[in-house]
Amino acid sequence: MKKALGTADDLSAANGDTILNRKQALGKANEWFEQQESGGAGIDPNIAVRDAIELTCEAGNAALAR
Q1: How much is the pTM?
Q2: Spatial CB neighbours of 58, under 8 Å, sequence gap ≥ 6
Q3: Nearest CA to 26 among 55, 5, 11, 42?
Q4: Banded pLDDT at 49 (limits 50, 70, 90)
């Protein structure tokens, strides 16, 4: 399975989002692997803003309930 996490900072300065330095890339890769291991579906690039907000709120409420 392939997933683009961002672009290397070889030609442009890292911004932590779309252009990553080595440390940032490793961090994003670790987050992605943890999500996959926990059964997460990954990030859907076609998700609507409303749906993303609702999912974030649900995750926050679940964390508070623990």
Answers
A1: 0.53
A2: none
A3: 5
A4: confident
